[in-house]
Specification:
- Pathway: Amine and polyamine biosynthesis; betaine biosynthesis via choline pathway; betaine from betaine aldehyde: step 1/1.
- This is Alpha-aminoadipic semialdehyde dehydrogenase.
- With about 600 residues, this protein is an alpha/beta fold.
- It folds into three domains: about 120 residues, no CATH class; about 220 residues, Aldehyde Dehydrogenase, Chain A, domain 1 (3-Layer(aba) Sandwich); about 180 residues, 3-Layer(aba) Sandwich (Aldehyde Dehydrogenase, Chain A, domain 2).
- Helices cover about 35% and strands about 20% of the residues.
- The longest helix has 21 residues.
- It is globular, with a radius of gyration of 25 Å.
- The protein binds nicotinamide-adenine-dinucleotide.
- The site of nicotinamide-adenine-dinucleotide (NAD) has 32 residues, from helix 13 and helix 14.
- Nicotinamide-adenine-dinucleotide (NAD) binds next to helix 13 and helix 14.
């Protein structure tokens, strides 16, 4: 959990920006102005002891030079002297953001990788949510690029599937190591492009590293059982084979980790991967793929084993409809996920769905409030409410309701709002302007449905997509807005009397992702884990709803889609199972003793 004690120290709201993606041809800049503010923000943002993605800045930093001056002076000459670099309205062209070059990013970036880089589709510019500055441009995949990439990925699979699993694991190990080397700079890009705070950006890359380690071990362990055959002279075994090509569509809010969960496991299972990230985080997709591509190419493995097709709904739909996509792993909203699931089902394909959540924390009268307050703060306010596992409903036993609300409001007041890359910041912007509108709309609906805003509820007065983390009380457990996943930091606080009713309320929403109770009652804990307890995929006790470890299977039930990723036996979803019976005798006994003569 990220420095919650620090969270409670003091509040310093300041600075900000917005985020969107615009479609344009590559010629011409993006927005003008803002260079100074972005520059000042970055300079302010990075106390050297805590954070230093551009490694070149350090030595002068230590001599007491200003970070801005140091980053300019230590730039490679070719960047500093290029007039367009000095003039660029794109962050990537500005000295302060020279560290983006460490990830191989340029003003214009190809968004298709299938062994070589290309792309002939629309150009998108991605924007930093915290300062509304354009970062760089990515040329996305056209449908022709998509077609070519699928063919290359299928060809690459033939090579990859022949490599023994432990050797595939060795490649994944190297990918993990390559990510380790870039962890700070890649985490910084996540912070810059998605808007989550720096430690969470780095944490996401760490999650990918962790799942690589996990997958390396798994590459020597996956396999099926030998089962006792009822027929003499027969062997009954399970053989697991890769499905082939795994399409991976990911959401904006975890632009690194979700791809990591999927690709590391899919790869050791012997699959090729084809990735489409969210258009608003295209640069992160490109940067991650560059790291992977180098490992593959250094090992003389076809790069198309890990293909990338940047794009929007057009490419996503093509993937969903495409029978060559042997498994389609989709992470995103329930609304889009349902369309995708139906398209895949139409062709009897396989899908793995990780969709929306509406997660609850239940606090009983015997709970340790020293755990409850920081847990709720992290789960509801962390990532500005933009995690699939964000706590959106807080059920409080009536005897402690007022006390917890008061304590929580005090904790909210101390959350430090700021630029996400500032190490002191705990709370950054929403990802897009549309998200701000959805936030305001949800607050309005909550009021109309009988709720009272006891904290927040407004847009923060600074340039960007910042909204106040918000607490609403007084709503009915089944008010329509309480049953809606609004991807913003709004917490609905609800009162309950009895265990039975609150377990039912936990389960009455359509989504079934994550859930937590806070109690010291052992019997209640086991009832919560049991058949009449939580119906979610993630069922916690005395910890927040968010912040899952990679070792367990991650996913949820009902409208969350039923998929499982990452640890435990999730690997099985990336493979097909054959039940094999081998007769090594000279007789032909039939099962169930049937005589057919
Ligand atoms: N359960 C999980 O593990 C998990 C993890 C992260 C996010 N989410 C969910 O994701 C949502 C937020 O992410 P988002 O706003 O990026 O979701 P989204 O559904 O808008 O987009 C997800 C992805 O789908 C693509 N897409 C859009 N239209 C498509 C179409 N017609 N066919 C195929 N692909 C299409 C997008 O370009 C993007 O890559 C929330 O609901 C959140 O709960 C779930």
């Amino acid at each position: 959990m990220i420095g919650l004690k620090r969270a409670l120290k003091g509040s310093r709201p300041q600075g900000g920006g917005g985020c969107r993606v615009s479609h344009r041809r590559p010629a011409g800049g993006a927005t003008t102005g803002g260079y100074q503010s972005a520059r000042a923000a970055w300079g302010r943002a990075r106390p050297p002891s805590r954070r230093r993605p551009p490694s070149c800045v350090r030595p002068l930093d230590m001599l007491g030079w200003s970070r801005a001056a140091a980053s300019v002076l230590l730039l490679p000459r070719r960047v500093w002297w290029r007039p367009e670099a000095a003039m660029s309205s794109l962050l990537v062209g500005q000295p302060k953001y020279a560290w983006l070059r460490e990830l191989g990013l340029q003003e214009d970036n190809p968004g298709v990788y299938n062994g070589s880089w290309g792309g002939g589709g629309q150009v998108v510019t991605t924007y930093c949510p915290a300062n509304n500055e354009p970062i760089a441009r990515v040329r996305q995949a056209s449908l022709e690029d998509y077609e070519e990439t699928v063919k290359k990925a299928k060809e690459a699979w033939k090579v990859w599937a022949d490599i023994p699993a432990p050797k595939r694991g060795e490649i994944v190990r190297q990918i993990g190591d390559a990510l380790r080397q870039k962890i700070k700079v890649l985490g910084s890009l996540v912070s810059l492009e998605m808007g989550k705070i720096y430690v969470e950006g780095v944490g996401e890359v760490q999650e990918y590293v962790d799942v690589c380690d996990y997958a390396v071990g798994l590459s020597r362990m996956i396999g099926g059982p030998i089962l006792p055959s009822e027929r003499s002279g027969h062997a009954l075994i399970e053989q697991w084979n890769p499905v082939g090509l795994v399409g991976i569509i990911t959401a904006f809010n975890f632009p690194v980790a979700v791809y990591g969960w999927n690709s590391a496991i899919a790869m050791i299972c012997g699959n090729a991967c084809l990735w489409k990230g969210a258009p608003t985080t295209s640069l992160t997709s490109v940067a991650v793929t560059k790291i992977i591509a180098k490992v593959l190419e250094d090992n003389k493995i076809p790069g198309a084993v890990c293909s990338l097709v940047c794009g929007g709904a057009d490419i996503g739909t093509a993937m969903a409809r495409d029978g060559r996509m042997d498994l389609l792993s989709f992470t995103g909203s329930t609304e889009v996920g349902k369309q995708v699931a139906l398209m895949v089902q139409e062709r009897f394909g396989r899908s793995l769905l990780e969709l929306g959540g509406n997660n609850a924390i239940i606090v009983f009268e015997d709970a340790d409030l020293n755990l409850v307050i920081p847990s709720t703060l992290f789960a509801a306010v962390g990532t500005a409410g933009q995690r699939c596992t964000t706590a959106r409903r807080l059920f409080l036993h009536e005897s402690i309701h007022d006390e917890v609300v008061e304590k929580l409001a005090k904790a909210y007041a101390q959350v430090r709002v700021g630029d996400p890359w500032d190490p002191d910041t705990l709370y950054g912007p929403l990802h897009t302007k549309e998200a701000v509108k959805m936030f305001l709309d949800a607050v309005q609906q909550a009021k109309q449905q009988g709720g009272s805003v006891v904290y927040g509820g407004k847009v923060i007065n600074r340039p960007g997509n910042y909204v106040e983390p918000t607490i609403v009380t007084g709503l009915a457990h089944n008010a329509p807005i309480v049953h809606t996943e609004t991807f913003a930091p709004i917490l609905y606080v609800l009162k309950f009397k009895e265990e039975e009713e609150v377990f039912a309320w936990n389960n009455e929403v359509k989504q079934g992702l994550s859930s937590s109770i806070f109690t010291r009652d052992l019997g209640r804990i086991f009832r919560w884990l049991g058949p009449k307890g939580s119906d979610c995929g993630i069922v916690n006790v005395n910890i927040p709803t968010s912040g899952a470890e990679i070792g367990g299977a991650f996913g949820g039930e009902k409208h969350t889609g039923g998929g499982r990723e990452s640890g435990s036996d999730s690997w099985k979803l990336y493979m097909r199972r054959s039940t094999c019976t081998i007769n090594y005798s000279k007789d032909l006994p039939l099962a169930q003793g049937i005589k057919f003569q």
